[in-house]
Design goal:
Order of helices and strands: EHEHEHEHEHHHHHHEEHEEHEEHH
Bound molecules: manganese (II) ion
Distance between the termini: 75 Å
CATH architecture of the largest domain: Alpha-Beta Complex
Number of domains: 2
Shape: globular
Helix content: 40-55%
CATH class of the largest domain: Alpha Beta
Strand order of the largest sheet: 6-7-8-9-11-10
Length: 350
């Protein structure tokens, strides 16, 4: 495969894909783009996205997958796209909430936009490239949907139904825990990159070198984390919360739900450099709340930023506002649970 780093005559046919390296949906999306286009894969995270974009040169197509926009990123992101569009067609595939203004800007830049909050990015990618994919590609989209809690969506459901249910659940979950345990692997970036390449060659996760070992590490780390969560978690009415120093806030938020039998878990980590808390919220399967909406509402009231999906949402909260944030989230959740709580209905009920 030609490396798309030069501006020779073949450059316009080469493709680069920048995809989210943090989770299975990002890796699965990258694998599907690679299978369909032969793109060179660069795995990125929000902290290095703009820098990664600034290094893109001379390719014919740029695919950006599973990297949502926020107000911190939007301006420098758009600036890089303005540069890149002079030589490449830009394809942006994502399922995170997209600010209508940013959406308009992307459209006016001629970006080929595939955006829906309904399905995860790997399902959107699968649908986009369906005709160019090898047999056996659908299960890669299923991994992303299952691990991104988007397995109940119309297209994801149809894809998952093609496979033996327990096989696809186990393979997908194996990847999640391999990524949790990947921190113990010597070259973590290389490991994630190898997962993408092997998936694109239709290997199953259990067949990828190092995945089962990393998965064991991830499971063991999670088992230890469960003990820690039981000790340090603080139970509220409908939520439980905890500060995290090691491990993923998303995982801890999930563990809080189970440990304290509450519908919503909230885990946060202090980021010293910026003096903010990075917060993850997770809802139990049957929780009736739209956490993404609640978080945007609360951050709209007190400051900070945030959003996300119904069952999985995140926020960045200035350190002095964390307590207000937690109180207000609990308050908003109570409102959903007991809408009559503060109104006439309760007063007029005998
Ligand atoms: Mn995703």
């Amino acid at each position: 495969m030609a490396e798309p780093t030069t501006t020779d005559s073949t450059a316009t046919s080469t493709a680069v894909c920048i995809s989210h390296r943090k989770d299975v949906d990002g890796l699965s999306s990258a694998a599907l783009v690679k299978m369909a286009t032969g793109a060179e894969i660069i795995l990125a995270d929000y902290g290095d996205l703009v820098k990664t974009l600034s290094e893109v040169n001379g390719c014919g197509h740029l695919y950006i997958c599973d990297l949502g926009m926020n107000e911190h990123l939007a301006a420098p992101f758009v600036k890089e796209l303005e540069r890149i569009r002079t030589f490449a067609t830009i394809h942006y595939i994502d399922h995170h909430p997209l600010d209508p203004k940013v959406k308009d800007t992307l459209t006016s830049l001629g970006v080929d936009l595939t955006h829906s909050q309904e399905e995860c990015t790997s399902v959107l990618t699968y649908t986009k490239f369906k005709d160019q994919l090898k047999r056996g590609a659908a299960i890669i989209a299923a991994y992303g949907a299952i691990t991104d809690y988007a397995d109940d969506q119309p297209t994801a459901k149809k894809i998952i139904a093609l496979y033996d249910r327990q096989f696809v659940l186990l393979e997908a979950t194996m990847l999640t825990y391999a990524l949790i345990g990947a921190a113990a692997v010597t070259d973590e970036y290389d490991f994630r990159n190898r997962i993408v390449i092997d998936l694109s060659e239709t290997k199953f996760p259990h067949q990828i070198n190092g995945v089962t070992e990393a998965m064991r590490n991830g499971l063991e780390a999670t088992a230890n984390l469960m003990l820690e969560v039981a000790e340090k978690g603080v139970k509220g009415n409908k939520t439980a919360h905890m500060e995290v120093t090691e491990g993923s806030t998303g995982t801890v938020a999930n563990l809080l739900v189970g440990t304290f039998e509450v519908p919503v878990g909230i885990a946060y980590r202090y980021m010293k450099d910026e003096d903010v808390y990075e917060v993850s919220l997770r809802g139990s399967y049957d929780a009736p709340y739209d956490l993404g909406k609640i978080v945007s509402q609360v951050t709209g009231m007190i400051g900070g930023s945030g959003g996300g999906h119904k069952k999985a949402s995140g926020a960045r909260i200035p350190s002095g506002l964390l307590k207000d944030f937690l109180d207000l989230v609990e308050f908003e959740i109570d409102k959903v649970t007991a809408p009559d709580h503060r109104g006439f209905a309760r007063l007029s009920t005998p």
